Amino acid sequence: SPCPMAEPKFTLMASDDDENDDDDEGGAGRGPLSDRLSETVEAPSLTEEDICEGVEMVPSHKTNETPKTTEASETTEPTQPTEPTQPTEPTQPTEPTEPTAYPWSMWKGAVPVVFVCRFDVRRGNVVEWCQPPEAGLEGVEFKALCAGFHELEEDYVYFKHGSWFGLAAFQKLVVDDPVHRNVRLRSVGLFMNSYAELRGYRRYLEDRVSDLNESEGNYTNLIEFYRQHHQQETPMSPAVPALREDMDYIGSSFLLMIMYFGPSVFQIWKALFLRLRILFYTLVPVGVVCDRVHCACQLLTTSSDSPITPHDPNPIFYVNVADIEQLAQMKFYVACTTEKVFAEKETLFDVFVDGQIVRVPDRKTAASLQLTQADRRRFDQIRHWTEEYAMNLGAGHSTQAEEAEAQRWITQLMKQFSMRAIC
User: Fold this and answer.
1) Nearest CA to 154 among 91, 208, 100?
2) Which of 89, 92, 137 is nearest to 116 (CA)?
3) Which has the closest alpha carbon to 250: 303, 313, 298?
């Protein structure tokens, strides 16, 4: 029987089995899809009673924790020394600012602004440096240095500033400097016109913020980066490998999103199609929930056989109290925040996602998002495909066969999130 209607504070939550899946979410898109699937073979065991009755969850600050990962270990392979007997294959020297050291081959958009923000013990958050110098960055320092960042060693955040989408990498460095309270808090970021292209620069920004914390005031690398990218219009290298990387990212993102939310992912999907205002809440780290915003937006754009044209879900990523007036004027958006005060401002959102709990204050809206038997059947089908695909990965197939199987799995998965699936 269908789940009974709840009180106006309509809440659906996934089972406890989903809690541990969040640990992998920060790694979305950083490795082959087969590696990501092998880490999350077991799907959550959800029953109709779990969905209707609800299951007690651990606090959101635990479900949102994610272990630190070292992305540098997944950069391009180190240059192999040249054998004296093979002079025809000399080792190519690698320049420190060579852009091909980072996964930029699939992105061709220009980078209009590069910036550095830091915490000053006297002035608070400040824009330390930017290129070009005349860029209007008022308020960016409070997005690039989110509330709660001081509790972390490192993190990253996506946000929107005007018409630009921004990405900033944060790092805290403990130093012997009593004048600055023995710590350096700094973020290095950039803006682009498309949020889809930002993730390719994350590793580069993490390297630069580490360099600046070690050697303050040295912006040489960033200046050269800006010179190369601020008017870039074409890919810097063939995009064929990058296309595969993008498919891996889409598949991994979908998997992590589905395994974390369980059948409730269909509530978020419906809210996107209905152009509702969706706000994700989390404690730090922020990067994990920014990735969820990105994944949610992909739920609208993954199926080519949809009978309707998907609209732009208007992702604005991280928001703080300074954005309240702007949010009040928006008809629909997808955003995230670390500030709990938003939970009390129900006029600013239609759907409030706190950890794995999907809360819908309005009873009529809650009814339109309620899970159906068809949603549960589709989730069971996705879980079956995932388990089947994971078993095939261990069957010793060739790389080409594994790629074909991955493509088939992603295609099946995407079809479950098309309007045709419920029309």
Assistant:
1) 208
2) 137
3) 298
